[in-house]
Amino acid sequence: MVPALVLIFSLAFYIRLHPGRQTPAVYLAFLSLAFTPLLHFRPDYHTVILFLILFSFFLWLWSLIPRGKWVVIILALVSVFWGSLLAGKIVSWPAAVDRTRLVFDIPTYKDAVRLHQRDARYVPFPVRRLLFNPSVYTYILGNNFFRFLTLENLMGSLLLANLYPLGLGLAAFFRRPEDFPRPFRVFLLLLFLQITVSRSPDKFNSLYIWFPLLAYLILRGARDVRLKAYFLLLLISIIFVLPRPV
Amino acid sequence: MNTAEKIIIAFILFLGLVTRFPGLGYSPPHLSNDEISIAWDAYSLSTTMRDEHNVFLPLSFRSHNTYKAPLTAYLGVLPVMLMGPGDYAARLPSAIFGLLTIPVMMALVRLLGGSRFMALTGGMLLALTPWHIYSSRVALESNIALFFVAFGLFGFLIAIHKKNSVIALTISMVSFALSVYAYHTQWIFTPLLLAVLWLYFHRRTFTRPEYYLGAVLFLLLVSPIFTDYIKNKGTYARANTEIFTHEPGLDRQLKNPGIMPFQKFLLVAMSITGNYSSYTNPGYLFFDGLNLLPRGDPYQSGLFLWPFLIFLSVGLFRLPRMFPRHSTFIYIWAALSPLVPSLTLNAPNQVRNLVSLLPYTIIITAGVAILWKKYPTRFLYRAVMATLIFVSFFYFCAVYYYHFPRQSAQNFQYGYKQMAGFIPIHYQDYEKIIIDPRFGDANVYSGVPHLYIPYYTRMDPRKMLVRVENSRGLFFDKYEFRDINWNSETPAPNRLYIVPRDNPPPPGILRAVQEVMLPDSKTALKAFAYQ
Known about the structure:
Chain A: The chain crosses the membrane at residues 43-63, 70-91, 154-174, 207-222, 229-245. Chain A: Keywords: Membrane, Transmembrane, Transmembrane helix. The complex is a heterodimer of chains A (246) and B (531). Chain A is an all-alpha fold and 246 residues long. Chain A has helices at 2-17, 24-35, 47-64, 69-87, 107-119, 125-131, 136-148, 151-158, 160-175, 184-197, 203-207, 211-222, 227-240, and strands spanning 91-92, 96-97. In chain A, 68% of the residues lie in helices and 2% in strands. A two-stranded antiparallel sheet of chain A has the order 1-2. In chain A, a hairpin with a 3-residue loop joins β1 (91-92) and β2. In chain A, α1 (2-17) packs across α12, α2 runs parallel beside α13 and α7 crosses α10. Chain A starts with a helix and ends in a 6-residue tail after the last helix. The mean pLDDT of chain A is 89. Chain B has 531 residues and is an alpha+beta fold. Chain B has 2 domains: 3-241 and 280-407, no CATH class; 413-530, no CATH class. The mean pLDDT of chain B is 93. Chains A and B meet through α5, α7 and α8 of A and α15, α16 and α20 of B.
C-alpha cells in the first residue's frame, strides 16, 4: 500500500511538471522505479513512513495548486527534514537529538587536531593553529558524504539501471538548475546535510524519505538515456534484486 | 612546440623530480615487508644470481608465503651493484619509472586527441597526484607495471597514427609484455586492454598483418611466465592465494552444498560488485584512500587531491567533447581498470588498483580543460581553482613528508635498519645474535628481520643460501631469528639479544646495550647483552 501510494504521488508529481507525450525510456523508468529496493524498504521507525507519504503528497500538491505554493513547500520541508532526521536516527521520536549519531563528537578527530598542532614543528605555533583546527570538519563532512556515494550503496537502494538516468538527471540539474523546481536546491542541500552529519549513514535509512526526489531525478534523466542500454541494465538489475542466498 | 611549452614541460618534470626523489630513505620511513623482499632478492641476484630461496634466476620470486613478479627484483640489481644495498638502491627503479610515466602521460593525452594544453595539464596533474607520488617513492611492482602499460599504449597509439609503424608496434608489444612480468594485476589487465585496443581499432588491427604479428610476439614474450604459473599451480602462487573467492565469508557460502549454481553465480557477482564499488568509492579516491596516518585521523589524504573530484565529475560527463575520437576508449579503460583488482582479496588495495590512475587522470584533465575553457577571462575563478589545488597539495606534502614518517613508522617495521647500524661495530664481540621477529603493541605482528639485518649490514648473500629453517626459527651465519621466551631462554655470555619493546628480558642478568626509538619517541627495539 505505502509503496504504491508513494510511487503514484511521485509519478503524478513528475507528469504534472512535464505533461505531454513521454519517451519510451520514461515509461521504462516508471517500471524500474517500482522495482527499487528503497521503495519496498521498511524503516526502523515506522513514523517515517508517514513522513514519506506526506512528503510525496506535498510535492504533488505543490505541482497542482496555482497559489499558496509556499505554504505547501514549507510543509514539505518540515516533513522531509523531520522525517530524514528520524530515518537517519539522528533524532529519536519526537525530537531528541542523539549526539552519538553525529559526526562531530568523535574523540579521535579532536585528538588528531591537537596532535598535529603539537607535532607540526616546521611552522611556528600560531601558524600551526591556522593549519590544524576544527575547520577539518568540512573535510570530514565531504569525506562522509562521498564515502556514502558508492556504487554498492546506490545500486543496493536504487537499482543499477536507475543510476544511469539518475546521473543524467543530476548532470542536467547542475548544468541548468533553473529548469528544475525551485525548492529542489534546498531539498538537495538537506539531503547532503543529512548524510554528512550522520556518523555512519545507512543506505536505506538515509535515502528512504528522499524517494520522491530521487524518482524525479531518475525520470528527468530517463528522457536522455539510450533505451537499449537502459533496458539491458534493467534486466541485469532484476537479476541482482532476486533473493540472496543465505 | 614553443619556448613557453618547453619551459612548462621542464617545470612539470622538475616538479616530478622534487616530489619523487629527495628523502627516499626518509618517507616512507623504512623499507616495508614487500620492499625488503624485493631489495634482498636484487642484492642476492647481484652476487649469486640466485634469490633468497636459492633458486637460480627465477621467474617468480617466493616471498612471505606467496610469489612475486620478477621484473622489479631484476631491475633492482643494477642500483644495488652501483650503490650497494640501501634504501635508495631499493627504491630508485620505482622512482625513475614514476618520473618517466609523467612525459608518457602527456604524450598519451595528445595521442588520444587532447590539445597541447590538455597534455601539459595531464602531466602536471600526474606530477601532483598523491597516489602516484606515494607509489613512485616505494619499491612497488605495480608502479613499474604502470609505466610499461602506459608506454605500451603509447607505442600502440603511435603505430595506429603513424601508418602501422612496425617499430612502434614492436616496442608496444615488448612494453606490454614487460608489464606482465612486472606485476600480477597485469596478468589479466594487459591482455584485456590489448583485446579492447584490438576491437576498438578493428579496422586496422583486423586487416593489417603487422598487428597479427604483434599479437604473436606478445604471446611469445609472455609465455614463459604463464608456463611458470602452470608449473606452480596448486602452490602458493599469487594467483592462487589472492583470489576473492578465498574471502572467508564467501568461501564458506560457496562451499555450502545447499546452494544452487545460480545462487553461487549471484554471490560471486555481488562480491565482485562490492569490491568494484569500494575501488570506485569517491571518499576512498579523494579523501582518505592513501591511508598514511593512523585510523581515525581526519587529515588523511585521498589517492587524488580532493579538488580533483570536481574535475572528475565534470570530465566524466564532458569527456566526448574533449576527446571526440577516443572518449569511448577512455571510458572503457577507466571502467576496466578496477575490474581486475576487484577479483582479489581485501579490497580496496591502492597498489593493485594503480592501473586506474592513468584513465582517471585523463578524465580529470578533461574536467580541468572544460572548466578552464568555460571561464576563459575570469581571473578570480582560475585563482580559486589554483588555490584549492595548492592548499590541498600543501596539506598532502605536510602529511606525507612530515607527519606520516613520524606516526606510521611502526607499520613499516621501523627499527631494523637502525639496529643494523649497531651490529657491524660489535659483530666480533658476539658468538650469536638472536633476534625476536615480533614487533608492535603486545608483539602482535611478526616481521622479517632475517632480510632487514643482512641487507643493511651488507652480509654476503651466499650465507643466506645455506640457511637452516625449522619450526624453531631461521638460522644462518651468527644469526638466529626466533621468538624468544624468557622463561625457557638461558642467556649466556657472547650472545646479543634483539627484542621488541614488549618482550624485555627479566631484570638482572642482561643489560641494555642499544635502544632504537620510533620517530614518535616510543621504543621500537632493544638490544641486550650479558652483564
